[in-house]
Design goal:
Blueprint (H helix, E strand, L loop, with lengths): L1 H17 L5 H39 L6 E4 L4 E7 L3 E6 L4 E6 L3 E6 L1 H9 L1
Antiparallel strand pairs: 1-2, 1-5, 2-3, 3-4
Length: 122
């Protein structure tokens, strides 16, 4: 990445040396173009992937069903017993401990109810 900027600055200086007038407009224009490239690069490398990831996590949490096995951000594994607007109730462990968790704490769905039904049909 560092070499890319060195090449761009070298090309910019070569273009400036080649111009006989050396007008300040061309220098300003190259600066504006460089800033625009950096903004576009930031958009495609940082902002857009983050939004895609947020959208997929939101869809995953919206697709929760009773009976799904989930894992939380804290590392707790459990089976969904009840789903409300902003929280869920899960059952964990062999002693069937029930826990109430916020939906935002769900990291992943380990096993969908639909997946188990498909395996039983085969």
């Amino acid at each position: 990445m560092h070499n890319f900027f060195i090449l761009l600055s070298a090309a910019d200086t070569t273009a400036a040396d080649a111009s006989t007038a050396g007008s300040p407009v061309s220098g300003l224009m190259s600066t504006v173009i460089m800033i625009a490239l950096v903004v576009l690069l930031g958009y495609f490398l940082l902002y857009r992937p983050q939004k895609k990831q947020e959208k997929s996590v939101k869809e995953m949490r919206a697709s929760l069903k009773v009976g799904d096995e989930i894992s939380t951000n804290g590392g707790i594994l459990g089976k969904v017993l009840q789903i409300k607007d902003d929280f869920i109730v899960i059952e964990t462990g062999a002693d069937r401990t029930k826990m109430k968790l916020a939906k935002w704490a769900i990291r992943a769905i380990e096993k969908h109810v639909d997946d188990e039904e498909d395996e039983e049909d085969e």
